[in-house]
Design a protein that fits this description.
Elements lengths: L4 H8 L3 H27 L3 H17 L3 H15 L4 H21 L1
Helix pairs in contact: 1-2, 2-3, 2-5, 3-4, 4-5
């Protein structure tokens, strides 16, 4: 995963330090949301999957983390459309792997 923090901060019109703070906030919140998302998948609760997916989609989109945004979008839309849980689980696992990569970049 590539993350050009300087370029993204410039696009957002904020300092790189501020962008790093926003990334820290997101990772902290995601540490809570991801287990909730996993539990919702296990419970086959499409509403909760959609809500948690929407949160991570919005956050990753706002932070311009395109790779994770695309996966989160699939999670949210998959839940909204009531798609196969196997596919949603695959996307959740992909998101978790990408999230671990992101944490190494911060």
């Amino acid at each position: 995963m590539k993350l050009d923090k300087k370029k993204i901060a410039e696009e957002l019109g904020i300092s790189e330090d501020m962008y790093n703070e926003l990334l820290q906030d997101f990772t902290s919140q995601a540490e809570t949301v991801l287990p909730q998302l996993q539990a919702a998948v296990e419970a086959k609760d499409f509403q909760q999957i959609m809500e948690r997916g929407h949160f991570i989609k919005g956050s990753t989109g706002n932070l311009r983390i395109g790779e994770l945004y695309a996966i989160a979008k699939e999670i949210e839309s998959g839940a909204k459309e009531g798609k196969d849980l196997k596919m949603i689980k695959m996307h959740v696992e992909s998101f978790k792997r990408g999230f671990e990569e992101l944490k190494k970049l911060i």
